[in-house]
Design goal:
This is Cell shape-determining protein MreD. The protein is mostly helical and about 60 residues long. The chain has 2 helices and no strands.
Length: about 60
């Protein structure tokens, strides 16, 4: 989920940088840094749990 949000933030930052504008005083570089922070959280495993993860996820075998 955080990776999808990071992709949206990167896209918004890219557009702001191309247009050389600011959104409420925040530049495109700030959006890039926010996207990197979200990707770091995603890689750390935060926000990646699914509803079935308490049962073992993909490692669970059926018998």
């Amino acid at each position: 989920m955080l990776a999808i949000v990071a992709a949206i933030v990167f896209g918004l930052g890219f557009l702001l940088d191309l247009l050389n504008t600011q959104l409420a005083g925040i530049s495109g570089i700030a959006f890039v840094l926010l996207g990197l922070c979200l990707l770091a959280l995603h890689q750390a495993g935060i926000g990646t749990a699914s509803l079935g993860s308490y049962k073992g996820g993909w490692r669970r075998t059926r018998r």
